[in-house]
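Observation: inputs received (chain + zinc ion).
Thought: call the complex predictor directly.
Action: predict_structure
Action Input:
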Amino acid sequence: MKNDFLCPYCKGKLNVKSNIVLSVTTESKKSGLVFISPKLGNYETTTHPSFKIKKGEHLDYFCPICHANLAAIEFDENLAKVLMTDKSQKVYEIVFSEIAGEHCTYKLVEDKIESYGEHVDHYTNFFGAKARF
Ligand SMILES: [Zn+2]
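Observation:
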């Protein structure tokens, strides 16, 4: 069994076939669905051609099932999070940037962090004593 991605609030499964599906609202208040790769560090995203996301804009991510805002303001106002479970049902927090084109993802479990993406340094400090890169 592969990794599953879950909403932290309703625990609904966010991965369908080979993508994570999230609802997104742009700075100009346009909403749409985005497909995100479940492979951490892969930042290819897919949207409907009529739903355009501008590089550098702040996006609000929502659970497409319960519509909860996935913002992870306990870390930073520009970060969002989902949960991931692996084949042994261990639960990880997956924290990622809400800025379009900013490539950084943090996988948190207990006091350990794994980080992915070329912009990981942008938020390293926000994890404080938890950071063990
Ligand atoms: Zn939800």
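Thought: report the result.
Final Answer: Residues 4-130 form one domain. Residues 7, 9-10, 12, 63, 65-66, 68 surround zinc ion (CB under 6 Å).
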